[in-house]
Design a protein that fits this description.
This protein is of the alpha/beta class. It has six helices and eleven strands.
């Protein structure tokens, strides 16, 4: 049976949050975002192995926040792709090419266990990997670099990429290596696989898989976590479902 590896890049500084610490250590309900995120990933896949990519000079991290039995700390890089590459290198001698590697944003603590299960089911038959994503619901505008609308972009067929994004170890490693050689600027792992000629599968995800990016996101994330916890206690899933919206 293939092993499953989580890679969680957590070396960023989160400067857009404007806090006194990296955003992964800002608190939600008395616990840091990082702790909530790792707990959710462990809840879904308790037997997976974790590579946690941290700044070598990180002074905030507490190992007590890691619920995984098998995990390792990996030096984070200047960019997300660097951190992921470091993690892949760290497990190179242990991972088989067909092992599953799941990369998740540390700032997405609200990802649902049901979405993670759907992603894993898709990955069983997705040679180029798969990622959680949501169809674009709002009208999209392109600006003219001067603060004016240049054009309205048709949203049909457009998706907002989320995480986790999952791939076989060999596919992701080869794709990132090729992208590095070409000097490509990557914003996610799927873009590296796309540049490598692959077509990852899109898995429709819930819209509450929020990425905490701006200060106002903290309150929203706290509300989502509380709502999910209440629904779980009641024995029913939260009400938000992934649908292709057709609003104005």
């Amino acid at each position: 049976m293939s092993r499953v590896w989580w890679i969680v890049p957590a070396a960023g500084q989160g400067r857009r949050m404007g806090g006194d610490r990296p955003k992964q250590y800002l608190e939600l309900g008395g616990r840091p975002i990082l702790a909530h995120t790792l707990e959710r990933l462990h809840e879904a896949l308790p037997d997976a192995e974790l590579c946690l990519c941290l700044d070598p000079d990180d002074q905030w991290f507490d190992p007590a926040w890691v619920p995984f039995e098998h995990w390792r700390r990996v030096p984070g890089g200047a960019e997300r792709a660097d951190s992921v590459a470091h993690a892949l290198a760290a497990i190179e001698l242990e991972a088989a090419r067909d092992d599953l590697v799941l990369v998740h944003d540390v700032a997405r603590p609200c990802v649902s266990v049901s979405d993670l299960a759907a992603l894993m089911a898709t990955l069983s038959d997705a040679p180029w990997g798969a990622l959680l994503a949501a169809p674009v619901a709002d009208t999209v505008k392109r600006d003219d670099d001067r603060g004016h609308v240049q054009a309205t972009v048709p949203r049909q067929g457009l998706w907002q990429a989320q995480t986790p994004q999952g791939f076989r170890y060999g596919v992701l490693s080869d794709a990132l290596t090729a992208a590095c050689r070409q000097g490509l600027a990557l914003t996610d792992e799927a873009s590296a696989v796309e540049a490598f000629g692959g077509k990852p599968r899109l898995v429709a995800a819930r819209r509450d898989n929020l990425k905490v990016t701006h200060p106002e996101d903290l309150a929203l994330a706290a509300h989502i976590l509380a709502t999910q916890a209440a629904a779980s206690s009641a024995g029913s899933p939260p009400s938000i479902t992934p649908t292709q919206e057709s609003g104005e």
